[in-house]
Every structure is written in C-alpha cells, then in structure tokens.
User: What shape does this take?
Amino acid sequence: MVDRADARASSGFEVQLDDYSGPLDLFVYLVKQEEQDLLGVSVLKIVKSLARFLAEGAGSDLDAAGEAVLLSAELLFLKSRMLLPIPLLDDEDDDGMAQPAAVLVQRILEYERARAMAESLREKEQMRRSLWFSGDSEGYAEKEEQEIVGASVVDLALAFVGLLSSDEMAQVQCIEREKYPIGDAVVRMAGVLKQKSPASMSDVFSHAQSLREKLVFFLALLELVKFSHVVVFQRRDSFNIKLKLVHDVDLLRLRAEMGLEADGGTSPDSQGEEMR
Amino acid sequence: MSAPENPIDPQTIRMVIEAVLFAATEPVSAEQLVGLFGANVSEEEIQESLSMLWEHYEKMQSSLQIVKIGGGFKMTTRGQYSSWIEKFFTKRRKVSLSKASLEVLSLIAYHQPTTIAEIDHVRGVDSAGVARGLLKRGMIAVKGRKKTPGRPLLYVTTDKFLDRFGLDGLESLVRPDEIDERAILKGFPAEEDEGGA
Assistant: This one.
C-alpha cells in the first residue's frame, strides 16, 4: 500500500511499496486523496512515479520491481475499463453485460468491505493485546525460537534414513504395492503426537513396524507439516529432530479431511494415494 | 438425569474453576470443565458457577476478569493495566499483523473455506505469500481441496485466530452486510454518472 506520508498529491506521487497492498488499495487511496472521481485519477503521474522508483535502485530488488510493474499495469487496466464506451443496451439485456464502471465500482466495493473488515479485526487485535493472562508465553517465545532451528526436508530425509536398519535399507529397492493409506498414517501419527508432543522423530517412528510402514509414516509426516498440523525442529546443539503438534488436532476431523471413513476404511478417492 | 455419585458443593466448584482458569494457558471450554468434574457436577452447575465467578470479578472491581474467548473462558488482566504489565516485563508484545495479513485473514474468516485465487480476486494482488505466513503462525489451516480444476487448497481460520483477536466465535465479527456501502463509496461517482476523462 502507499505510505500515506510519502504519497503527496501536490508535488507528484512518491510511491513506497513496503506496505503495498495492491492496485485497488492505491486506486481507492488516490481517488479519495484527490477528491476526484475514478476518471480523474492521473495514471500518468503514478506510472511516472513508479518508473522513477524502478530507476532509483529498485532494479536490484526483483520482487519490488515486479510489484511496481504489476501495479502500473493493473492501474492502467482499471482506468482503461472506465474509458470504454458504454454499450447501448435494452434494459432487458442489462443483466448479461455489466457496464465497465459498474464492474469496477462493484470490485472496489468488495475490496473496501474487506478493508473495513480488516480494520475491525485490527481494533479487536488491539483490545486483545491489552489483556494478559497467567502463563502468557508470548514474552518467552522469542528465547525459545532462538534456541531452535527449523528442520528442512533434507534433514528429515537424513534423519529418516538414520532410523532404518541396514536390513531395511537393502529392501528399499523392491517396494511392492501394499495397502498402507497415507491418510491412515497421518491420523495415526497425529494420535501418537496427541499423547506426547513434542516427541522425538525416532519415538514417533517406532510406532511403524515394517519398512513400508515407515516410508508411509515419512510421507504422512510431510503431509502433517504441509497442512500445518505439525512443526519439525531441532536444537542447535542436537541432532535429535523433534515433532510438535501446532494445535490440538481433532482426530475425527482429520480423518474426514484425509477422506477416511468413520470406521477406519478408505474412501475411493484416497485409494490413489496409497503407498505403492 | 441420575443423582451425582459424590456431589460437590457449589463453592468448591467455583474455586476449582477459578484455579483452573488461573493456571490454564488456553481458553477452557465448559465441556472441558464438565469432563474435569465427571458425573459429580452437571453442565448447568458449571454454567452457573462460571456466571457467578464472572459476576464476582465484576463486582469486586478486580484488575482480573473472566472473558469468553476462542470458544472457552480465560482469566485475564483488564485492558487498563496493560501498560504497567508491559513496563514490568520490560518488553512489548510482538508486533501486530500487517495490513495485508489482516485483509487476507478477514476474507478467509468470512468466506471460509476459500481458496487463494478467490482472495486474490478481491484484493487484486497475489496473496499466496501472506497466506503462507498466516499458516506458519497457525492463524489459518488447510481444510481439503476444492473440487475445481487444479484442486486448489481450501483455507479456514483456526481457534488460534479467535484467541488472537479475542473473539468468542466467528459470529462476533462484523458482517460484510453491516458495512455501510454509502460510506465506502463516498467520493466515488454514482453509477449513473457518465462524465468524460
């Protein structure tokens, strides 16, 4: 979004993209700032300002440069829609072809509603932040975060290989199709972590017996991480990777999300995700 | 309903609930409290004890209060003492969420389950990065995939979201239709305007 302090209508626009929230945001701001109607907004000024922004060093920041270009293009698009001739239509045909101005106003209205809702959330957040409670861990979270580092997929894969015995490693070449639905393993692993979290990766994987089951467990772990149910971390001074539930997972809901039947069976949709 | 095996007197119930609310770091639901007492205390007794406890803290003008938040109850300090507490801990709360994050969160909250593409459409800008950040913070979660081409992920808000904003439930949010359209469109041309550039 435009930084209000840096967007000056009088001496041209200085657009700062740090807190940029999209072309609609900028467009609405400019309309209100200049107290003009949608057609009165000078896109030329904005584009010139963005061109200057690119020339003055933003070229080295591809993300910022990309956003600047996107912003200009979107603003031009918005204004071009306003300049389109209004088709002469019978009232009866009005439903099918909305006028460009009406479409744009509708879009802005929708965006402004979202913005108003976000503002109401901001107020609620401020009120909530003034409340403290016993064991409020926010003050201590910073220290804990310094001590732990996120584990990458490579770390996980290496740790997983470390969990396999040499016999199991030899079997890796001949994995045959077997029915180990990943969804089942996801729910099982979440169940294990509900008992104890955080838990070491080796403890969690000790619940899987065969090599195939362990492989499915590994894929299940990736799923749990992907769906933000679990975080994986290790302390800087330790090789031990730990798994932690991010929140209290409802296993019944998780079963439904994984496409599993209530009785533990697998729905037809999830058959394709079985371990092969 | 059968008579409780070992009835507990109302004052003890209130004190136990008070102790639990004081010690708990997460909102405590009425169901959890029913589970705590088992068959000895009915849900009605729990509700009654909670409201008496709430009244007690209101009447004695304590710096503590009991609030309904995130689908449960929490004992917190009152807002006016926040600056003193911050001064005592010599550190401020973590920074609040960015404007972009709040926009994405509010859109997910009202339209959930929804996809990133649907959010992008309203905001007119890519929201995938913001959504990833919110996922990491546990404010939103993935709840399956939409049955459309590409099977995009569907996002919903979490209990952590309710807690973060002090909401008892999603119904506590301002509804989109409660927002005055006329106020939004102030300064914009009326639809029938056909003025030139």
